[in-house]
From TrEMBL:
It comes from Paraglaciecola algarum. Keywords: Lipoprotein, Signal. Residues 177-216 are annotated as: Disordered. Residues 177-193 have a biased composition (Low complexity). Residues 194-203 have a biased composition (Polar residues). This is Slp family lipoprotein.
Length: 216
């Protein structure tokens, strides 16, 4: 009976872990536009809904709105972006109201829902870039993953003169933060490939992402 109860609560816990935050949930996820489609055929999917994530590359405050330039990363089953050394590209998302740059800092991970507005031209440094453009409806700022140092003492059986005696040993588990400079989207070299004939970004289909496993 005890085992059944444990399995029941374990299943509930896993189901909860795989659920998007309430503000990011949508009625029909199958109707969402992927970043690949937005980058390669923006005019055909213009006006449709998106749910994208990524790392903040730039934040710009306007008089009544905020523009976030995001490095795109795919999402986990519960909506957190999977940061990696490479990305499919960048996009811009327009949010009504003021967003404090000290809170929404470069490198922080966010997930958005919104409506695709097409594309807009811009620069990444001095490099011309074509950004998929989104008007955001909801967003979620993910907490930073902190380094946790866990030490524990366990009991291990020790064979001593044909009898078992407890022998303590010490083990250490370190969970390292994934929000570092190599994976938070602050670099632009791996985002787009320079072209001498036309701007990069949404004008070409980006290369696949090599995602990395993320700890919630």
């Amino acid at each position: 009976m005890f085992i059944r109860v444990c399995l029941f609560f374990s299943a509930l816990f896993l189901a909860g872990c795989a659920t998007f935050p309430e503000k990011l949930q949508v009625a029909d996820p199958s109707q969402l536009v992927t970043y690949q489609d937005a980058a390669s055929k923006a005019e055909q999917v213009k006006g449709k809904s998106i749910r994208w994530g990524g790392a903040i590359a730039k934040i710009e405050n306007k008089e009544e709105s905020t523009i976030l330039e995001m490095v795109y990363y795919p999402l986990t089953s519960y909506g957190r972006p999977i940061s990696a050394d490479e990305s499919m590209g960048r996009y811009r998302i327009h949010i009504n109201g003021f967003m404090d740059p000290m809170v929404y800092q470069v490198g922080r991970l966010m997930t958005f829902t919104g409506e695709l507005q097409g594309v807009e031209n811009g620069l990444v440094g001095e490099h011309k870039y074509v950004f998929p453009s989104v008007v955001g409806t909801n967003y979620y700022l993910w907490k930073k993953l902190q380094r946790i140092d866990i030490s524990r003492v366990d009991i291990w059986p020790h064979d001593y003169w044909f009898n078992y005696y407890p022998r303590p040993y010490r083990s250490r588990l370190i969970i390292r933060s994934s929000n570092n400079s190599s994976s938070n989207g602050q670099h632009s070299g791996s985002v787009s490939r320079p072209s001498t004939s036309r701007p990069s970004g949404a004008s070409t289909l980006p290369k696949p992402v090599r995602g990395s496993k993320e700890i919630r």
